[in-house]
Fold this protein.
Amino acid sequence: MFHAIDYDDTDTEKIEERIKTHDFDKYKDGQVKVFVRHKRSPYLFDRFLDKLYDIHAGNVTIVEDLTQEEINDVDVVDMSKDTLTLILNEVDTMTEIDDIGKLKRIIKDLYMESLSL
């Protein structure tokens, strides 16, 4: 009924494999506490949490203890870059996407359309 999960994505291949092969069904209707040790990829973390939510875990609690050093590493944003460039740079880091060029074209089109509204 009560489960604790350590989350650490310093090894992205390991966490991607865990997302694909881990038996998340055992957490169904349970109380799950996720202890975040290292979170370098928000996208991978969201995919991990989506797996928990997809199996209808009763309650998911996330415990993050970010030290100032980790916050500085994760939250540094180059203010000299525009929004679209930042988004496209993030897309470049996604390893799961087959056709990154197509995704970038769609994002650019959506971004330009949003500016015209």
